[in-house]
Design a protein that fits this description.
Keywords: Signal. This is Lipocalin-like domain-containing protein. It is rod-shaped and about 95 Å long. The protein folds into 2 domains: 101 residues, Lipocalin (Beta Barrel), CATH 2.40.128.280; 98 residues, NlpE, N-terminal domain (Lipocalin), CATH 2.40.128. The chain is α+β, with helices and mostly antiparallel strands. It starts with a helix and ends with a strand.
């Protein structure tokens, strides 16, 4: 009697364990894809190494994203991204994005997501390596820092271009028709030198002769599209735009602007 009871008990435990194991296996089926996966490839184009990083993220709610970063070796990088929904049963991956839907063979093994891609009748395997949440955050932080550095470099380059365009002499003239003014021509002259110093001249003329000629020296700098003129501590800011032989200075506070012409 005791022997029969023991057999029944063991059978119950085995059956319970079997169905519990199956239940857990069913629950985990397809879940192994959840997380972030990365594939990095390098190609050589025009003597430069082009690095392409594909980052796929699969969320538990069957949504995901694909972001592709391309570093062409020119000091900058471009990126493109799209979102999708997906289903994965352990061997087949279905992705539904705004512009396409696709089903591919896929499986996860030893921390590697393998996706089979068919191109012109040929099948290629693309292997994505799983990365942790910490690694993903670190990647994002590094890319953000690179983007900020790139933006700073671009701003510095644009600033240097504006400074180089400014070098030279510029004049803005106004003819005066009021006979009581005491002069018939007013010249506003700005000269920029390569060492970021300059000269500002105000000239009043009557019949080609100077009635008054005032010269003031300054230092200058450019930040973005803002020109700063420093007259011995008194700083004046103007929005600057150079178009060929025309220089337009605009006062940001009231929008008043003058357009100067480069002198030969």
């Amino acid at each position: 009697m005791k022997k029969n009871s023991l057999v029944v008990l063991m059978a119950t435990i085995l059956i319970s364990t079997f169905f519990s194991s199956c239940s857990k296996s069913d629950d985990m089926k397809g879940k192994e894809i959840i997380g972030a996966w990365e594939l990095v490839t390098e190609t050589v184009s025009w003597g430069r190494t082009v690095t392409t990083t594909e980052l796929m993220v699969f969320n538990a709610d069957e949504t995901g994203s694909m972001t592709t970063y391309i570093d062409g070796g020119w000091g900058g990088a471009s990126s493109e991204a799209y979102n999708f929904t997906y289903t994965f049963d352990g061997t087949s991956l279905f992705i539904d994005a705004e512009d396409f839907s696709r089903t591919t063979d896929a499986f996860v093994e030893d921390g590697v997501l393998t996706i089979e891609v068919n191109v012109n009748g040929e099948t290629f395997q693309r292997e994505y390596t799983k990365i942790t949440k910490e690694e993903l955050e670190q990647r994002e932080e590094e890319r953000k820092q690179q983007e900020e550095e790139q933006e700073e470099e671009e701003e510095e380059d644009e600033t240097q271009v504006i400074i180089e365009q400014l070098i030279g002499e510029w004049i803005w003239s106004v003819e005066v028709t009021d006979p009581t003014a005491g002069y018939d021509l007013y010249n506003d002259i700005i000269i920029f030198y390569e060492d970021k110093t300059g000269v500002y001249r105000e000239q009043w003329l009557l019949d080609g002769e100077y009635v008054q000629n005032i010269t003031t020296e300054f230092e200058f700098d450019v930040e973005g599209d803002i020109l700063k003129l420093d007259f011995d501590g008194a700083v004046y800011e103007y929005q600057v735009a150079v178009d060929g032989n025309e220089l337009t200075l605009t006062v940001p506070s009231d929008g008043v602007s003058n357009t100067y012409t480069r002198t030969e």
